[in-house]
């Protein structure tokens, strides 16, 4: 999606949940609120406001996850030069898909890229998806799922000339399709901040 040229945007707040520096499991999201200003990015965590200027950003990494029977959720990880990070989520408090927050997240993602000054853009790595190692592991899981839930039942249906394995294969295709979409969206790719890939928008 076209993020246009860098532009100084007025200060704006986005009602999105955030997480700081942690890969641990969260039962629910607590910290709500991220904002952009001409000087940089800010957020609220633990009842306190935190800010970082644009020059402190080292990497921006938008990703997509797919929740079965619900839909897509977005997350954007902002890594700073000191190694700390901030993740902005489109999910609800309980981690579910939320269409209103998805729309808010899309607006945030566009504004974030537009607001970064041109002299800072060249110092930031813009990369969508997962790391190469994690994407490879996800691809292996997808291939195993296809073999087990689709190819094997199709083979049994042909060998036994029975309908039941074919129905299992059809159900397996429905099960693996969301996994395919997530695997495709997770492909690591460097992108131009002026042209954000559509696939990273929920």
In short:
The chain is α+β, with helices and mostly antiparallel strands and 202 residues long. The protein contains four helices and nine strands.
Q: How would you explain this protein's 3D organization?
A:
Helices cover 36% and strands 29% of the residues. By secondary structure, it is α+β, with helices and mostly antiparallel strands. It has two domains: 12-127 and 190-200, Roll (PH-domain like), CATH 2.30.29.30; 132-181. It has a nine-stranded mixed sheet. β2 and β3 form a beta hairpin. α3 packs antiparallel against α4 (164-185). The longest helix has 29 residues, at 132-160. The mean pLDDT is 83.
Structural topology:
Blueprint: E1 12-20, E2 32-36, E3 40-45, E4 48-53, E5 57-67, E6 71-80, E7 85-89, H1 99-115, H2 118-121, E8 125-128, H3 132-160, H4 164-185, E9 189-190
Parallel strand pairs: 5-8
Antiparallel strand pairs: 1-2, 1-7, 2-3, 3-4, 5-6, 6-7, 8-9
Helix pairs in contact: 3-4
Features of this protein?
202 residues; alpha+beta; PH-domain like; 2 domains; 36% helix; 29% strand
Number of domains: 2
Beta-strand fraction estimate = 25-35%
Q: What is the overall shape?
A: elongated
Output mean pLDDT. Answer: 83
Distance between the termini: 12 Å
Low-pLDDT stretches? none
Give the CATH topology of the largest domain.
Answer: PH-domain like
The total strand number stands at: 9
CATH architecture of the largest domain: Roll
Integer-rounded radius of gyration:
20 Å
Q: What order do the strands of the largest sheet run in, or round the barrel if closed?
A: 4-3-2-1-7-6-5-8-9
**SSE topology string:** EEEEEEEHHEHHE
CATH class of the largest domain: Mainly Beta
Number of helices: 4
Pairing-aware structural class of the strands and helices?
alpha+beta
CATH homologous superfamily identity of the largest domain: Pleckstrin-homology domain (PH domain)/Phosphotyrosine-binding domain (PTB)
Q: Which bin fits the share of residues in helices?
A: 25-40%
Largest sheet: 9 strands, mixed
């Amino acid at each position: 999606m076209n993020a246009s040229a860098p532009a100084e945007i007025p200060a704006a707040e986005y009602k999105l949940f955030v997480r700081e520096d942690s890969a641990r499991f969260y039962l629910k999201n607590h910290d709500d609120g991220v904002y952009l200003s001409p000087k940089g990015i800010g957020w609220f965590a633990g009842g306190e406001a935190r800010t970082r200027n644009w020059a402190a950003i080292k990497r921006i990494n938008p990703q997509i996850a797919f929740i079965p029977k619900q839909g897509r959720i977005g997350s954007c990880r902002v890594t700073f030069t000191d190694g700390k990070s901030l993740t902005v989520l489109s999910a609800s408090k309980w981690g579910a898909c939320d269409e209103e927050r998805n729309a808010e997240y899309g607006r945030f993602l566009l504004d974030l890229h537009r607001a970064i000054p041109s002299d800072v853009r060249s110092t930031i790595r813009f990369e969508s998806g997962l790391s190469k190692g994690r994407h490879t592991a996800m691809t292996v899981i997808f291939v195993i799922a296809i073999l087990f839930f689709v190819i094997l039942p199709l083979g049994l249906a042909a060998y036994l000339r029975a309908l039941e394995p074919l129905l299992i294969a059809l159900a397996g295709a429905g099960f693996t399709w969301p996994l395919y979409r997530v695997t495709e969206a997770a492909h690591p790719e460097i992108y131009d901040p002026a042209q954000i890939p559509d696939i990273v928008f929920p």
